[in-house]
Amino acid sequence: MRVGRILSVEEFPEARNPAWKLEIDFGPEVGTKRSSAQITHYTREQLLGRTVVAVVNFPPRRIAGFASEVLVLGALDPAKGVVLLTPDDPDVELGSRIA
Which of 4, 13, 34, 65 is 20 to 30 A removed from 44 (C-alpha atoms)? Predict the structure, then answer.
């Protein structure tokens, strides 16, 4: 698991369940990866530039023709759905391992 920053957020109308297409920067060691995330109670503006925690060593998974390379982590909330896990300090180094 590593810390990344969301660089871009695109709509994903082809997905079976509402989702965003994310591009996430994990720093120089891991690089930039893409993810499909069912976090639709967040607006594009709330996601852009946000730091997140993701699993980066899963094999890519095809979702409606999109290669999702990492799994963004969150807690399940009955009312909101997935609530993103994020570091307490937004300036933490990108690519930091989760201990």
Answer: 65
Distance CA(71)–CA(57), nearest Å, equals 9
Provide the token pair at 41. Answer: 């109670």
Instruction: Count the alpha carbons within 13 Å of 3 in the hemisphere toward its beta carbon.
Output: 16
Best CA proximity match to 77, nearest among 50, 43, 39, 51: 39
- The answer to whether residue 19 scores a pLDDT higher than 90 is no
Q: Which two tokens stand for residue 45?
A: 């503006």
